[in-house]
Amino acid sequence: MTTAIFTIVYYAFTVYQFMVIAYVLMSWVPQMRETPIGQLLERLVEPFLAPFRRFIPPLGFIDISPIVALIALNFAHRGLNAILQQLLL
């Protein structure tokens, strides 16, 4: 049972990380954001990226907020794993 919970959490965070990466890569090809998949990714990822973009200004043409967001997502994943480990084991 506990292994299943850790596996589900792992895959959920991994899928979301790939969604963020795909959304960032889609910014290089603006036409991709107009597709149904692009619009779906925008609805799912932009609310997560918005707070980081508010506090981290772009450096010229480079937006480093997605990198910081992915690092924060990694910390959240590790923190949730630690909490679950304390509760379940």
UniProtKB/TrEMBL annotation:
The chain crosses the membrane at residues 7-26, 55-76. The keyword Transmembrane applies. The keyword Transmembrane applies. Keywords: Membrane, Transmembrane, Transmembrane helix. One of its GO terms (cellular component) is membrane. InterPro entries: CCB3/YggT. Pfam families: CCB3_YggT. Belongs to the YggT family. This is YggT family protein.
